[in-house]
Amino acid sequence: MKQIFIWVLSFWTVIGIGLSRSDAGLEEFNAKERLLSFLETAVVSNSLQVPLTLIQGAASKGAVCLDGTPPGYHLDRGFGSGSNSWLIQLEGGGWCNTIRSCVLRKTTRRGSSKFMEKQINFTGILSNKAEQNPDFYNWNRVKLRYCDGASFAGEGQNEANQLYFRGQRIWSAAMEDLMAKGMHNAEQALLSGCSAGGLASILHCDEFKDLFPKTTKVKCLSDAGLFLDATNVAGGHTLRDMYGGVVTLQGVQNNLPSTCTSQMPPTSCFFPQNLVANIKTPMFLLNAAYDAWQVQESLIPSSADPNGFWRDCKMDQAHCNSSQMLFLQDFRNQMLNAINDFSKSNQNGLFINSCFAHCQSERQDTWYENDSPRIGNKAIAVSVGDWFFDRMSVKAIDCPYPCDNSCHNLIFNDDVTSTITISESTSLTFTLLNLLSAFLITLTCSKCIMGGLSLTGD
C-alpha cells in the first residue's frame, strides 16, 4: 500500500514539474513576444492605413502560414512618377526553432493570418508622404506579412502538430501574385526587410533580381538583418544553437545558397556574415553596431546571466561599466570585420551607426525626421536614396559609442525583458503541488525508515 501511495505522489510530482516547465516555456515565449512588440513600436501620427490582402490560390500551392491559413500582404499603389516602381518590405519577427515554440507561434499573427491586423500603418520607408519618405513615397509599396518563422526559407511540415513550414512557398506565391498585379512592368524595384525580414532580404535578394528583365533596376536593403554568430557573455553561442533548430526543424537547408552550403554547415549559411559577400545583386546594409535585439537575445540572454551581473547594462547602455562596454565594442568590431569583403564592392552600400537600436527603416523617427540618426549629417533615408539612385557612393560607418549624439537608443524595462529561463541543467521552478508532493514523500519515507521498511516493502 505504501508503495502505491508513494508511486502516485511521485507521478503527480512529475506531472507538476511538467506543468511548471510548460508554464515557464509559455512565459519565455510571451517575454520574447513582448520584446519583439516593443522593438516594433513606433510613434505614428496621421499615417496611412493599408488593408490586408490574403493571397488567393496560395493554399492550393501549399503556401501557407504555420497553422495552414493563407499568407497575406498590404499593398498601397504607387502614383505619378512612381507608378512603375516597386518596394517590397519583408516583415520581421524572430523565428521558431522547436515544435513547442512553433505551436505557440501559430496562435499569433506571426504564425497565422487569422490573427493578423486587418490594416496596418505605413510609416518610414513605407510612408506615402514626400516629407517623410522623399525617394519612395509614390512607389507601389508592399509589406509582406511574416507567418512562417524561418525568414521565408522553410520547406516541410509536422503532421502530428499540424505545423506547416512553408516560408519558401510563401515567398514564391507572394512574388507571383504581385508580378500578376503589375510588378512585372517595374522599371525599378527594391527588396527590403527588417530583422528576420532583413535576413530574408539577404537570402532572397538574387532570387528577387531574377524575377525581372535585365533592364529593370533592382537592388536590396537589409535593415537590422546582420545577425552575427557571436559568443554570449557566458561563452556560449545562443544564436547558433537557435538557428540550428530553425534550419533543421523547418527544412531550410535546401533553400540556402549552394555557394555557402558546399563549404559550410547549413546553420552557418543562415548567418548573413557568410552570405553577403557572394550576393550578386547590389545590396545596402543598414544596421546598428550595437543591435538592440542581438544585445538582448544573443549576447546577454537571461540564461547566460543567471546572477544578473549584466542586467542594468542590458536594460540601458548608459549603465554599462568599462569591462561590459569593452565586450560590446568587441561585438561592433566583429560586425565590421564581417562586412569587410562586402564593403569592397562599389555596388554595395552601408550605414552602420553606433546606436543601440533595431529596425530603423520602418520607424518614422529614425528613417526621416528632423532629429533622425545621422552619419556625416546625412539621415538614413537620404543615404539609402543616394545609394539606390546612384547619386553617390554610400559607405557610412559611425565612430564607436558614445560619440554619436543623434542615436535614438532603446531603453528597456522589466515588463519587456522579464522571463523565466529553465533548462535540463538548472533547478526547476516548483508549483505548490510539487512542494506538497515532495513533502509527503519525505514524510512517508521517514516513517518507512523509522519502521525499518524499504520503499518496495509491503
From TrEMBL:
Recorded family membership: Belongs to the pectinacetylesterase family.
GO molecular function: pectin acetylesterase activity
Pfam families from the UniProt entry: PAE
Signal peptide stretch: 1-20
Xref: PANTHER family: NOTUM-RELATED, PECTIN ACETYLESTERASE
Keywords assigned: Cell wall, Cell wall biogenesis/degradation, Hydrolase, Secreted, Signal
One example of a Gene Ontology biological process annotation: cell wall organization
EC numbers: 3.1.1.-
Gene Ontology cellular component terms for the protein in this record: plant-type cell wall
KW Secreted (keyword) present: yes
Subcellular localization, as worded in the UniProt entry: Secreted, Cell wall
Highest taxon listed in the record's lineage: Eukaryota
Function: Hydrolyzes acetyl esters in homogalacturonan regions of pectin. In type I primary cell wall, galacturonic acid residues of pectin can be acetylated at the O-2 and O-3 positions. Decreasing the degree of acetylation of pectin gels in vitro alters their physical properties.
InterPro entries documented for this protein: PAE/NOTUM
Protein name: Pectin acetylesterase
Hydrolase among keywords: yes
